[in-house]
Amino acid sequence: MAPIPAHQLLIFLLQIGLLLLMAIALGxxxxxxxxxxVVGELSVGVILGPSFLAHVxxxxxxxxxxxxxxxxxxxxxxxxxxxxxxxxxxxxHMDMGLVxxxxxxxxxxxxxxxxxxxxxxxxxxxxxxxxxxxxxxDVSVFALFLGVAMCVSAIPVIAKTLMDMKLLHRNIGxxxxxxxxxxxAIGWFLLSIVSAMATTGLRTGTVVTSLVYLVLxxxxxxxxxxxxxxxxxxxxxxxxxxxxxxATAAVLILLSAAATHAMGLEAVFGAFVCGILIGSSKGLDPxxxxxxxxxxxxxxxxxxxxxxxxxxxxxSLADPLVxxxxxxxxxxxxxxxxxxxxxxxxxxxLSRWEGLALGAGLNARGVIEVVVAMVGLxxxxxxxxxxxxxILVAIVTSLMAPPLLRLSMSRIQQTxxxxxxxxxxxxxxxxxxxxx
Length: 436
What we know:
Layout: H1 6-32, H2 37-48, H3 53-56, H4 58-64, H5 69-92, H6 96-101, H7 103-127, H8 139-151, H9 155-164, H10 171-200, H11 204-237, H12 243-262, H13 267-279, H14 290-310, H15 320-347, H16 352-362, H17 366-378, H18 384-409, H19 416-424
């Protein structure tokens, strides 16, 4: 088979170089204004995509981003590797000890923050104008997918926000992280089920098969996967260099993603589970994975987010129907998560301001929402218009979190326990994706 043609290679290299350059620059600019870097990275695609460049310089846009499937798939391939490694790293940074310690209260907050927005999103999906739903998509599958998109949170964004605001040692900070971890884990389960429905049809057998596969994945991970990951990392750690450990972790994450993808589940679910196994592996030196974090967070991830933004078409919001639908979905996403988290917090005997703080923190969708939206677009569940709306939700909710957290936390008295924790606190998520 002939290698990639010279012109396609040239365009690909220019695309990658320009996307990464602008993603780094605008990501840093966003951070200077107190926003997550992902906002700037996503805006790269908006600037270079159909929302702006295609209107300002259509000829140049057509040359740099030709409407050729195979050309765009080259970018997709790089982006998919990046997002799988990013999700794996997020799994590595899950503090399972924290989940066990705060499990009861966090479960109540998580349940409310999951069920209410899920129900709101499903309802919105059924009410969505049919003109915005792809012709071959089952309305039930579309509604379930939108519900999943509304109920997820983003651990990377939450963790970075808490660190920047020096709230990581506060009880609310710990609870927000724990509840977010639970939400994300369940979100991957739900995403895998809905994805299976979209590819094989909405049938009882499909749901049962998906659940069986999910159970098998969890059982395999707990029984065979855990010791296999531990032995692999221990073998890699015999080297005095970090390279073998980095390579082993990357191989494990990618092969796990391939395994769940082969089962009809989402590849990101396998990467997430494998990340948890790597992070909980005894004797692992986190410093050895620092090079992997650097490459993924500074290279692959920004390219993925910039590529995701290329598929956004904000000019579609000029259509009154799309604009109204977008504002309605945004309001549903924000209110659903706030109401659910607040109700869960109050049921767990937390104060009103604590409930509002948890709602503000868990509202940040960030990277997870982008991943979910990309999956929906790839499977044909979402139209470009609805995809744009979902990405808009990810950006707006990530921007909302810091000021709302600052407002609510200013009314919560710091306890002596938190004072002691502040003195000895060490980042429980070393290397958390900065600004993602």
